[in-house]
Amino acid sequence: MKEKIYIISGTNREAAVSLQVAHIYQDVFERKGVESEIIDLQNLPDDFIAAALYSNAGTHEGMKDMRKKMKEGKKFLFVVPEYNGSFPGVLKAFIDGLIFPDSFTGKKAALVGLSSGIQGGVLAMSHLTDILNYCGTHVLARKVKLAGIGKNMQNGEITNDLYNQLIDWQVDEFLDF
Ligand SMILES: Cc1cc2nc3c(=O)[nH]c(=O)nc-3n(C[C@H](O)[C@H](O)[C@H](O)COP(=O)(O)O)c2cc1C
Hints:
41% of the residues lie in helices and 19% in strands. The protein contains seven helices and eight strands; from the N terminus they run E-H-E-H-H-E-H-E-H-E-E-H-E-E-H. Strands 1, 2, 3, 4, 5 and 6 form a six-stranded parallel sheet that branches. Helix 1 links the parallel strand 1 and strand 2. The protein is globular and about 45 Å long. It starts with a strand and ends with a helix. The structure holds flavin mononucleotide. Flavin mononucleotide binds next to helix 1.
Protein backbone atom coordinates (compact mmCIF):
# COMPACT_ATOMS: atom_id res chain seq x y z
CA MET A 1 0.00 0.00 0.00
CA LYS A 2 1.56 3.31 -1.12
CA GLU A 3 1.64 6.40 1.12
CA LYS A 4 -1.02 9.04 0.66
CA ILE A 5 0.38 11.97 -1.32
CA TYR A 6 -0.41 15.58 -0.46
CA ILE A 7 -0.43 17.86 -3.52
CA ILE A 8 0.30 21.48 -2.67
CA SER A 9 -1.07 23.99 -5.15
CA GLY A 10 1.58 26.64 -4.59
CA THR A 11 -0.30 29.92 -4.98
CA ASN A 12 -3.35 31.63 -3.54
CA ARG A 13 -4.07 33.39 -6.86
CA GLU A 14 -7.73 33.22 -7.81
CA ALA A 15 -8.33 31.01 -10.87
CA ALA A 16 -4.81 29.63 -10.58
CA VAL A 17 -3.62 27.27 -13.31
CA SER A 18 -1.58 25.59 -10.57
CA LEU A 19 -4.79 24.21 -9.09
CA GLN A 20 -5.71 22.71 -12.48
CA VAL A 21 -2.26 21.10 -12.64
CA ALA A 22 -2.79 19.79 -9.09
CA HIS A 23 -6.01 18.09 -10.28
CA ILE A 24 -4.19 16.58 -13.26
CA TYR A 25 -1.66 15.00 -10.88
CA GLN A 26 -4.47 13.81 -8.63
CA ASP A 27 -6.02 12.03 -11.62
CA VAL A 28 -2.68 10.40 -12.49
CA PHE A 29 -2.21 9.21 -8.88
CA GLU A 30 -5.76 7.84 -8.87
CA ARG A 31 -5.16 5.96 -12.15
CA LYS A 32 -2.15 4.35 -10.48
CA GLY A 33 -4.21 3.38 -7.43
CA VAL A 34 -2.66 5.91 -5.04
CA GLU A 35 -4.66 8.15 -2.73
CA SER A 36 -3.90 11.87 -2.84
CA GLU A 37 -5.32 15.09 -1.44
CA ILE A 38 -4.89 18.65 -2.63
CA ILE A 39 -3.79 21.37 -0.22
CA ASP A 40 -4.84 24.53 -2.03
CA LEU A 41 -3.14 27.72 -0.85
CA GLN A 42 -6.25 29.61 -1.99
CA ASN A 43 -7.79 28.20 1.20
CA LEU A 44 -5.32 29.97 3.45
CA PRO A 45 -7.16 32.37 5.75
CA ASP A 46 -7.14 35.95 4.39
CA ASP A 47 -5.41 37.19 7.53
CA PHE A 48 -2.87 34.39 7.78
CA ILE A 49 0.19 36.65 7.40
CA ALA A 50 -0.98 38.82 10.32
CA ALA A 51 -2.60 36.14 12.46
CA ALA A 52 -1.12 32.68 11.76
CA LEU A 53 2.67 33.16 11.77
CA TYR A 54 5.43 33.53 14.38
CA SER A 55 3.94 34.00 17.87
CA ASN A 56 0.49 33.15 16.44
CA ALA A 57 1.70 29.90 14.83
CA GLY A 58 -0.69 27.04 15.58
CA THR A 59 -3.42 29.26 16.99
CA HIS A 60 -5.35 30.16 13.80
CA GLU A 61 -8.35 27.83 13.30
CA GLY A 62 -8.20 28.42 9.54
CA MET A 63 -4.72 26.96 9.26
CA LYS A 64 -4.86 24.15 11.82
CA ASP A 65 -5.98 21.48 9.37
CA MET A 66 -3.31 22.33 6.77
CA ARG A 67 -0.56 22.37 9.42
CA LYS A 68 -1.70 18.99 10.73
CA LYS A 69 -1.67 17.46 7.25
CA MET A 70 1.78 18.87 6.48
CA LYS A 71 3.04 17.49 9.81
CA GLU A 72 1.56 14.04 9.33
CA GLY A 73 2.09 13.62 5.57
CA LYS A 74 5.22 11.89 4.34
CA LYS A 75 5.16 12.67 0.61
CA PHE A 76 4.38 15.99 -1.04
CA LEU A 77 3.98 17.00 -4.65
CA PHE A 78 4.49 20.75 -4.97
CA VAL A 79 2.93 22.56 -7.93
CA VAL A 80 5.21 25.59 -8.33
CA PRO A 81 4.17 28.52 -10.52
CA GLU A 82 6.92 30.87 -11.65
CA TYR A 83 6.46 34.36 -10.20
CA ASN A 84 9.18 36.89 -10.99
CA GLY A 85 11.76 34.20 -11.62
CA SER A 86 11.05 32.29 -8.41
CA PHE A 87 8.20 30.60 -6.56
CA PRO A 88 5.35 32.65 -5.02
CA GLY A 89 6.00 34.46 -1.76
CA VAL A 90 2.81 33.00 -0.35
CA LEU A 91 4.32 29.53 -0.64
CA LYS A 92 7.36 30.62 1.39
CA ALA A 93 5.06 32.23 3.99
CA PHE A 94 3.06 28.98 4.12
CA ILE A 95 6.30 27.02 4.69
CA ASP A 96 7.32 29.51 7.39
CA GLY A 97 3.98 28.85 9.15
CA LEU A 98 4.46 25.07 9.33
CA ILE A 99 5.65 23.03 12.29
CA PHE A 100 9.44 22.88 12.12
CA PRO A 101 11.18 20.47 11.87
CA ASP A 102 8.41 17.83 12.06
CA SER A 103 6.80 18.90 8.77
CA PHE A 104 10.06 18.37 6.89
CA THR A 105 12.55 15.97 8.46
CA GLY A 106 12.96 12.83 6.36
CA LYS A 107 9.99 13.69 4.15
CA LYS A 108 9.97 13.32 0.36
CA ALA A 109 8.88 15.83 -2.24
CA ALA A 110 8.50 16.05 -6.01
CA LEU A 111 8.18 19.34 -7.87
CA VAL A 112 6.41 20.45 -11.03
CA GLY A 113 6.92 24.00 -12.32
CA LEU A 114 4.77 26.04 -14.65
CA SER A 115 5.18 29.38 -16.35
CA SER A 116 3.84 31.48 -19.19
CA GLY A 117 7.39 31.96 -20.40
CA ILE A 118 10.09 29.55 -21.50
CA GLN A 119 11.60 28.53 -18.14
CA GLY A 120 8.83 26.27 -16.85
CA GLY A 121 9.64 27.29 -13.29
CA VAL A 122 13.16 25.86 -13.44
CA LEU A 123 14.62 28.57 -11.16
CA ALA A 124 11.53 28.56 -8.96
CA MET A 125 11.97 24.80 -8.39
CA SER A 126 15.68 25.23 -7.78
CA HIS A 127 14.99 27.87 -5.11
CA LEU A 128 12.34 25.69 -3.48
CA THR A 129 14.66 22.66 -3.57
CA ASP A 130 17.29 24.60 -1.59
CA ILE A 131 14.74 25.46 1.08
CA LEU A 132 13.22 21.99 1.31
CA ASN A 133 16.69 20.40 1.49
CA TYR A 134 17.71 22.87 4.19
CA CYS A 135 14.59 21.90 6.17
CA GLY A 136 15.37 18.18 5.81
CA THR A 137 13.12 17.08 2.93
CA HIS A 138 14.49 14.93 0.10
CA VAL A 139 13.55 16.21 -3.37
CA LEU A 140 13.12 13.91 -6.37
CA ALA A 141 15.69 14.71 -9.07
CA ARG A 142 13.18 14.45 -11.92
CA LYS A 143 11.37 17.78 -12.06
CA VAL A 144 8.72 18.54 -14.64
CA LYS A 145 8.91 21.95 -16.35
CA LEU A 146 5.66 23.07 -17.92
CA ALA A 147 6.82 26.06 -19.97
CA GLY A 148 4.40 28.06 -22.11
CA ILE A 149 1.55 26.74 -20.00
CA GLY A 150 -1.03 28.96 -21.72
CA LYS A 151 -0.35 27.27 -25.06
CA ASN A 152 -0.18 23.74 -23.70
CA MET A 153 -3.38 23.51 -21.66
CA GLN A 154 -7.02 23.58 -22.64
CA ASN A 155 -10.11 23.05 -20.50
CA GLY A 156 -8.05 21.86 -17.55
CA GLU A 157 -6.13 19.28 -19.60
CA ILE A 158 -2.53 19.30 -20.83
CA THR A 159 -2.55 19.08 -24.62
CA ASN A 160 1.19 18.51 -25.05
CA ASP A 161 1.96 14.76 -25.33
CA LEU A 162 5.54 15.18 -24.10
CA TYR A 163 4.36 17.02 -20.98
CA ASN A 164 1.87 14.24 -20.22
CA GLN A 165 4.62 11.63 -20.71
CA LEU A 166 6.99 13.52 -18.38
CA ILE A 167 4.30 13.74 -15.69
CA ASP A 168 3.67 10.01 -15.97
CA TRP A 169 7.39 9.18 -15.62
CA GLN A 170 7.78 11.54 -12.70
CA VAL A 171 4.80 10.04 -10.87
CA ASP A 172 6.17 6.50 -11.37
CA GLU A 173 9.56 7.57 -9.99
CA PHE A 174 7.95 9.45 -7.09
CA LEU A 175 5.89 6.43 -6.09
CA ASP A 176 9.11 4.35 -5.89
CA PHE A 177 11.08 7.18 -4.20
C1 LIG B 1 3.07 37.71 -9.78
C2 LIG B 1 3.34 36.94 -11.03
C3 LIG B 1 4.63 36.87 -11.51
C4 LIG B 1 4.89 36.14 -12.67
N1 LIG B 1 6.19 36.02 -13.10
C5 LIG B 1 6.48 35.23 -14.16
C6 LIG B 1 7.83 35.00 -14.55
O1 LIG B 1 8.76 35.46 -13.94
N2 LIG B 1 8.04 34.22 -15.63
C7 LIG B 1 7.03 33.66 -16.35
O2 LIG B 1 7.29 32.96 -17.32
N3 LIG B 1 5.73 33.82 -15.97
C8 LIG B 1 5.44 34.60 -14.91
N4 LIG B 1 4.14 34.76 -14.50
C9 LIG B 1 3.11 34.04 -15.21
C10 LIG B 1 2.82 32.72 -14.50
O3 LIG B 1 3.93 31.87 -14.49
C11 LIG B 1 1.64 32.02 -15.16
O4 LIG B 1 0.54 32.93 -15.10
C12 LIG B 1 1.27 30.74 -14.50
O5 LIG B 1 0.06 30.32 -15.04
C13 LIG B 1 1.11 31.03 -13.03
O6 LIG B 1 0.45 30.05 -12.36
P1 LIG B 1 -0.93 30.38 -11.64
O7 LIG B 1 -1.97 30.51 -12.74
O8 LIG B 1 -1.13 29.15 -10.83
O9 LIG B 1 -0.82 31.61 -10.84
C14 LIG B 1 3.85 35.49 -13.37
C15 LIG B 1 2.53 35.58 -12.87
C16 LIG B 1 2.28 36.28 -11.72
C17 LIG B 1 0.87 36.31 -11.17
